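Predict structure. Chain length: 262.
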Amino acid sequence: NADALRAAIGDVVARHEVLRTVYVEIDGEPVQQVIPVAQARVDFKHETVAAEQVDAAVKEASALAFDLSVDLPLAARLFSIGEREHLFVLTMHHIAGDGASMGPLSRDLSTAYIARCAGQTPQWEPLPVQYSDYTLWQRELLGADDDPDSEISRQIRFWRQTLNGMPEELPLPTDFARPSHSSHEAGRVDLKVDAATHSALRRLARTHDATLFMVAQTAIAMLLTRLGCGTDIPLGTVVAGRPDDTLDELVGFFVNSLVLRN
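Prediction complete.
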């Protein structure tokens, strides 16, 4: 039901301010500008495509470029391959969401779609806060970077000391030379760990009063040092950045990278 889906996306955009926020420049500084619900227009297209054209259509939809000063950071494409076969592609700019946002986004979209298919509007609990509330909270918490006594200045001093002298790039023995310009083309390698190995890793972790994450981190660091990357191995990991329960149901960019120096 393309009409119900279009309406459901509108419902979700109305619910989450960050999905109807543009970023304009004022006096050389970027400023968030929340578009009123009545004026928010989602880029939604419904197309009929042949089965052999689906992969190309998905790739094109996924590579959509956003002009964040005017475009909402969300676009939707519904591809109909046949009467009973459809493919839905939702493209979101990273400024508006992260991996942990996929849960609330998909749940809210499902709730709204079911309601719209029944000729109703979604009935959900109001969100306790919006992303703009979080940004104001962060500004108040961190303070100004030109204040030496602020929290952000303290954190910057800590990380400068902690990461001082760290290698800027590990000499990884890659199959191909690093390109001068990124193509932004990505790949994926799946690694399967069987049940017996998983159990052994858990026992190893318990024996040394560690977590399974710490064991995996150590294994990666040891592998890299054996491959000739030296003995100062910085590994990046992701933190969700949602320390408060009120943020759990929000779509937004909270994620951050944490450097673990081994």
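Summary: The first strand starts at residue 21 and ends at 26.
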